[in-house]
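so my prof wants the structure for this chain in the tokens format not the other one, which i didnt know existed until like an hour ago. anyway here's the sequence
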Amino acid sequence: MDKQKIIFSNRFEKEKFEDYKTDFGTGNAITPDFTEADDFLKFIQKNRRSVPSKERIADKDKFIKTVYELSNSFGIDADLIEFAEGYIANIYVDYACYTGYIKKLLAILFILADDISFLDGSKENADMLFSFTYHTHHIFLKDRETTDFS
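here's what i got, hopefully its the right format
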């Protein structure tokens, strides 16, 4: 067997949450004055609007089909959730080396999704939860778009 050789390796010191800057100054277009979650929710509801995107609505079937095919073809637990401005696909996977068609399906979800979260899947008897969000609407907060599809 040939001797293995490391060509490149990097390790970086991770910043701690306490080290992040918390004083962002007054350059923000939005200066919320809430202190509790309920106040935040009211602020979002009052200052938020959504505009349908014909292109995004037309392409939603690709997202839905990929989630359906991934789950059914490989017996992977999945939840597809529709909400007012789009869909959320929760894919529950175990740590593994994914190759071939399953890798292609996951790649499609990564490309189509607007937001991706990697979460602990142990509550659903899985190692990891991939949560993919697909928006069918442009969402604005005080006339500033929060969903940039470009």
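also thought this was worth mentioning. The chain has a mean pLDDT of 82.
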